[in-house]
Amino acid sequence: MRAISRFSSLLMPLALAFSISFPAAHANQEKPPSVVASIIPVQLIASDLLDGIVEPKVLLPAGASPHQYSLKPSDARMLTNADVVIWIGPELERFLVKPLSQTSALTIKLLTEEMIHSGEEDVDEHEHHHDEGQHEEDHYDEEGDGHDHGGVDPHIWLDPHHALAIADAIHAALVQHFPHLKALLDQNLDRFTASLIQQDRALMSAFAPLSDRGFLVFHDAYGRFIEHYNLMQLGSVTINPSRKPGAKHLGELRDTVETSQAVCVFSEPQFSSAVVASIVAGTGAKVSEVDPLGQNVVLGAGAYQRFLADFAQPFYTCLAP
User: Fold this and answer.
1) What local confidence, expressed as pLDDT, does residue 244 receive?
2) How far apart (Å, rounded) are the C-alpha atoms in residues 310 and 99?
């Protein structure tokens, strides 16, 4: 299988004005800063930039959802002791709004107005493309599942274009606040950028022949990845992972999969494999699991690229004829 190791189009980073709060500096700036990322994907990017300096900590443990998380006393202590806190923004981690308003740490908010609007433009273009004779995207929702972002897609780390912009923002903030680390931060950013551009070329090339292979998702969170690689999501079958659907609802979901003519249905680790199997039974659709939070990726140089490869692989494998 050749996919993930080939290369195709050049990726240019976004020039975005990220929201950065610069409070009073901590006492000794010659020591490596204590860095806390809100979620694992942000930690992965930060760990690449901080390689050889310090290993960033992460607030949410593997398996936890930023949509429904509540801070524990140990989390509060981690934030209190942090020099730097990096998060997506209130659209994803609403539980951090109040704690971060009270911290003395440097805080870096990654989801900006520019990035929000760039996502809206991508969605508009995608919908226009499918209105012209391909497929209309439908959304099949059970009950509220805690994924309401106010119309904003905050899953920005799934688009390599945005990942480069995230790295630029973290680098700029750290260099400004910890100038003694500039040489190593510059070196790490250069390596990260070159490696990710190369990887993005490979994925663009791999996905190009699969742009007409339709699929459904259980969690409508991959829009930025899907738009970036011009993949064809036909709709989403949103179910609450904490509630087992009844027989009638399972039948309705099976009908949805069958009528959509999806070749693949993507689930996530929190969804019961038995429920997934019931939904696709008799439809002819394949099933694959994706992990948008990178629970098993090792930190350090190349961490985000390993995450992106792991996330992309099920799409390629399941959509391939």
Assistant:
1) 67
2) 33
